[in-house]
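Hi W.,

Here's what went into the run:
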Amino acid sequence: QVQLQESGPGLVKPSETLALICAVSGGSIRNTDWWSWVRQPPGKGLEWIGEISHSGRTNYNPSLRSRVTISVDKSKNQVSLKLTSVTAADTAVYYCARNPLSSGWYFDYWGQGTLVTVSS
Amino acid sequence: EIVLTQSPGTLSLSPGERVTLSCRASQSVSGSYIAWYQHKPGQAPRVLIYDASRRATGIPDRFSGSGSGTDFTLTISRLEPEDFAVYYCQLYGNSPPLFTFGPGTRVDIK
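Here's what came out:
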């Protein structure tokens, strides 16, 4: 059973960089999977941030592309997210999720999410 | 960019009722790219349906998905107490690669 666990600072100051890690357990990062970050601002819906493949190929939401970097460390079974120049609008629960590309374009495993608040 | 709309925004229903949730895309899409999720407060979203009509592993058969083109539907044949949640449809677009979620439908207990 694949498990995902997000971790990182719960409070980030405006204009600084948000950095989160998603630890993957119960299986290795396979070359058939892509790994995404999805966020949910308080009281709002889900927003896809971007994704990365086993080999490091990335795709980003155009609305966030200029500020986002997603990376993968296969040796540690981790996926990372960095979001620069944050504002209060970036306050959200951040989830990592797996897209099992071999069977479709959806997310079958999700982390529990981590709340990041942007405030001085 | 393709936009997803979901209707209604909120439903108030009783256990045992049948519910049909709608997801409409702003242009025709392949059903292969449509999924549905259930999301409860404090929990991770859970995939119910992918490829518009395939039930995900472990999902009860009271959940079903259908549709094509611009109109997709999630049906819960008989609401159980644990089904009260927010439901999102999701689309994958490949030009550029982009996942999009609908705004969600909240199913509340009446």
